[in-house]
Amino acid sequence: MIELSRETAGPPAELIFGDWYPALRSKELRAGKMSRALLLGVPLVLGRKKDGRIFAMRDLCPHRGIPLSAGWFDGETVQCKYHGWRFEPCSGQCKEIPSLTNHDVLEPGKIFAGAYPCEERDGYAWVYVPEPGTGRIGDKLPPVPELPKFSERYRSAHLVADLPCNVDHGIIGLMDPAHGPFVHQAWWWRSKASIHEKTKQFEPIPQGFRMSPHAPSSNSAPYKLLGKPVTTIDFVLPNRRYETIRAGNRWFTSLTTVTPVTASTCRIDVLAAWNIAYWVPFVTSIATFFGARFVRQDQQTMIEQAEGLRFNPALMLIDDADQPAKWYFSLKQARLKGTGEHPLSGPVTLHWRS
Fold first, then answer.
1. Are 254 and 148 in contact (CB under 8 A)?
2. Alpha carbons 123 and 100: distance in angstroms, whole number
3. How far apart are CA 207 and CA 201, in angstroms?
4. Matching CATH topology for 19-129 and 155-353?
5. pLDDT (tens digit, 9 = 90+) per residue, 281-322?
6. 19-129 has CATH 1.10.10.10 classification
7. Where are the domains of the chain?
8. Domain spanning 155-353 has what CATH number?
9. pLDDT digits (tens, 9 = 90+) for 101-114
10. Which one of 74, 138, 166, 210 has the minimum C-beta count within 10 Å?
11. pTM value?
12. In what order do the strands lie in the sheet with 94-96?
């Protein structure tokens, strides 16, 4: 991971609350231990109870504001270091205030620290981050994101990188179709000389859009290993890109998320799964090696872009290659305003060179 500084962070972006975000890898959560994370500028403390359940709390004691992560977790309750207040971490309910005496009428159980829904999926601890000031969170939540899989036996890999830019720049970089031959040049991927015109059809889906099933790029060497695959790519608010590649019984899927850490920085997580040659020794290590190089190229480009964004330059989006970015901004504004308007009324065909 690359540590980001205030000097390299880009301008802030408006954030989408009321949805699930990946906080950290669930393997980091061990019984009796606490881990810290930051999502949408909200400080979190996460852990795993003795019964295996994971939790996410706002990392602030409601009494005096000290981080709860500075205290203790015994596998059942989180105890504040300052005055010893004790909380059940899944609900946030206060279980004990040591300073109370028989003369006090205060009922600890009526006090709640901030606690958020937290679920495990595909090796992540996903946290539902509500709108500020929402109060108690009900049970009617959107489903937790999950990576599609098409067989019981498969391999998987995970990659992560911090980006010194706001979530909007991270997301439109994620969906940008024209940067590949320049940012991701490699003998095993593609080169500038491989650029050619492409035609893709897009269609609206709830909270996003889909690049309709198509044959993947002929100038990307790894796709040739699959024979004649068909690829489908979905983008879904607030931050998810799903890619599914299938060729008969062989398949590859990925879920990439760009998660706002603060209003001006974000993190990219890539989770991939496949059943191609899953029995081959070291196949996961090999895939992770090449995938990590791919993600580092994106990360380095975003670091360099952040240097320019510090000066708040006027930016432009062109047709057709930047049309998905325009759709993203329209979808985001519709969600923030609660209008429900979709920028696509039906299928659209785009053309670009890449």
1. no
2. 41
3. 18
4. no
5. 555 665 666 666 666 776 777 777 777 777 777 778 888 888
6. no
7. 19-129, 155-353
8. 3.90.380.10
9. 999 889 999 999 99
10. 138
11. 0.87
12. 72-73, 78-79, 86-87, 94-96
